[in-house]
Write a structure and sequence with these properties.
Layout (H helix, E strand, L loop, with lengths): L1 H28 L27 H180 L7
């Protein structure tokens, strides 16, 4: 189909060249009334153009020459087409073989890549299992830490409650201490006053004793003086001498 299209194109080119050459000759020679008539037949591989009238012999020769060239080209075209087909088939076979080798190499590369990916996936899965085990251990450690934290918070709360109770007890005992101090101060004052009273009474007692001693001494002296006076009175009256 490609060869036929090429042949028709060459034939049309030859006719066109013949027409242009004939028109050019007419314009140069000034023979506008010359007639040209021609015909060509195509059968198999041969073409022929017949020219006539006026000075059209030159144009017809050119046309016949173009037709002969077209015939030769068409004949060579068949051989060239067969050779081109063979060369194209060889090239296609070579390209197909190269493509097959490339595809096989690509398949081998993909197989190697798949093996590497499989190995990497297995390693990644093993690492994932290890990390999952570590995560489980970390979870247990977290739970233990949470329990310890809760215990510490409870202990701190207990300590806070005990501290509050102790602080209240401190306040109460301080108030009791202040009251005891006040009572002690009051009692000390009363004791001092009592001691002062006792001291005063002791002084009064000493004075009374001294007064009593003085009075007793005076009474003794008076008694002695009275006895002496009575003795003298009896002696002076003579009632004591009857001999």
């Amino acid at each position: 189909m490609g060869c036929l299209k090429t042949l028709v194109a060459i034939l049309c080119l030859g006719v066109t060249i013949a027409d242009e050459v004939q028109q050019s000759v007419r314009e140069k020679r000034g023979h506008g009334g010359s007639q040209y008539s021609g015909s060509y037949t195509s059968g198999g591989a041969g073409y022929h153009v017949v020219g006539g009238g006026g000075h059209g012999a030159f144009a017809s020769e050119v046309a016949n020459q173009a037709a002969n060239q077209a015939t030769a080209v068409a004949a060579g075209q068949s051989a060239s087409a067969a050779a081109a087909y063979g060369a194209a088939a060889s090239r296609a076979a070579a390209v197909s073989s190269a493509a097959a080798r490339t595809a096989q190499a690509a398949a081998a590369s993909k197989l190697n890549q798949a093996a590497q990916i499989t190995q990497a996936a297995q390693g990644a899965q093993a690492a994932a299992f290890q990390e999952a085990a570590k995560t489980q251990l970390a979870t247990v450690a977290e739970e233990e830490a949470m329990n310890t934290y809760n215990f510490a918070v409870a202990t701190a709360n207990d300590i806070d409650a005990a501290h509050a109770e102790a602080q209240a007890l401190v306040t109460q005992t301080y108030q009791a201490l202040q009251h005891a101090r006040a009572v002690r101060a009051s009692q000390a004052s009363m004791a001092w006053e009592a001691q002062q009273a006792a001291n005063s009474l002791n002084q009064q007692q000493n004075l009374s004793i001294n007064d009593l001693k003085s009075a007793q001494a005076a009474a003794a002296q008076a008694t002695a003086a009275s006895s002496k006076a009575l003795h003298k009175a009896k002696g002076s009256s003579g009632f004591g001498n009857y001999h």
